[in-house]
Write a structure and sequence with these properties.
Blueprint (H helix, E strand, L loop, with lengths): L4 H5 L2 H42 L2 H49 L1
């Protein structure tokens, strides 16, 4: 007695149909991915062109200016905190001296 392929593997038409669907889905996905890749390459090329148009010296000057301004502001804030601390320290020393004077009398 011989077992036919269809009996051995079951209904092959359903398997073939599902396999064709998977292949078609994969081809469709590849096509979409290819289109997306093409679009992203175009965007990247446009960005490269825009970057080339930008004056690098101008960017460097602007960045240096911003760094200088930020540094100056930081130093001003530190100076103000130091001055506030000195004033507070002086005030505490004055109060301590007054308390000592009161204690001696």
């Amino acid at each position: 007695m011989r077992i036919s392929d269809e009996d051995h593997y079951g209904d092959m038409s359903k398997f073939k149909f599902e396999l064709r669907q998977k292949i078609d889905d994969a081809k469709s996905g590849c096509a979409l991915a290819g289109d997306e890749l093409k679009h992203k390459r175009e965007v990247l090329a446009n960005l490269d062109v825009e970057l080339f148009k930008v004056d690098q010296n101008q960017i460097t000057t602007e960045i240096k200016s911003e760094i200088t301004e930020t540094t100056i502001n930081i130093l001003k804030a530190r100076r103000k905190r130091l001055l506030d601390l000195k004033m507070s320290n002086h005030s505490l020393k004055t109060k301590l001296a007054q308390m000592k004077d009161m204690g001696q009398e």
